[in-house]
Amino acid sequence: MSDLNEIGERDHWRCWLCDKAVDPDASVNSDLGPSADGYAVAKGKKGSVAVERLAHRACNTMKGKNAPVVPWASELLVAEPAPIIETIERLKAKGGRELIGRCSSEADAEAAAEWLLDRLSRLAPETSFSTQINPGGGQYLLMLKAS
């Protein structure tokens, strides 16, 4: 296991699950205290690669051994939003683009695209993503592409 301070510095003291600040001076026993969350990525022939990310102790505990879920912002108006973690892992592995959500207006789609790119810049900083908004059928389709 890596040093918690190294993980915190690398992740800029932000919880990778809820995207809120983590107090580096808080007790590791506090719900808002720092903890290292290890999860498996890059499943392949040789098994999984473990990655450690900074999380609040409470966020890490709630996740447990389940696959991580990164929620969409509650103020966004997105219908049928795709699961963020699974989508970015597929795009990083296979490339291409995927539908990540549908919006009823272009303004909603633009707000969701801006939020998503900002969130992905911290969630997966090693990968560059772009979005595309396609009108059709009275709605706006938000597409995500790994660049």
What are the defining features of this structure?
single chain; 147 residues; alpha+beta; 2 domains; two-stranded antiparallel sheet; 4 helices; 29% helix
Q: What's the arrangement of secondary structure elements?
A:
Blueprint: H1 4-10, E1 34-44, E2 47-56, H2 57-63, H3 84-94, E3 97-103, H4 106-123, E4 129-136, E5 139-146
Antiparallel strand pairs: 1-2, 3-5, 4-5
Q: Kindly, what is the distance between the CA atoms of the first and last residues, rounded to a whole number of angstroms?
A: 31 Å
- Give, in spatial order, the strands making up the sheet with the most strands: 3-5-4
Question: Helicity, in percent?
Answer: 25-40%
**Oligomeric form:** single chain
Instruction: Name the average pLDDT.
Output: 88
Overview of the structural elements:
The protein is of the alpha+beta class and 147 residues long. It has two domains: 4-63, no CATH class; 84-146, no CATH class. 29% of the residues lie in helices and 30% in strands. The protein contains four helices and five strands; from the N terminus they run αββααβαββ. It has helices spanning 4-10, 57-63, 84-94, 106-123; strands at residues 34-44, 47-56, 97-103, 129-136, 139-146. The strands form two sheets. Strands 3-5-4 form a three-stranded antiparallel β-sheet. Strands 1-2 form a two-stranded antiparallel sheet. A hairpin with a 2-residue loop joins strand 4 (129-136) and strand 5 (139-146). It is elongated and about 50 Å long. The chain starts with a helix and ends with a strand. The mean pLDDT is 88.
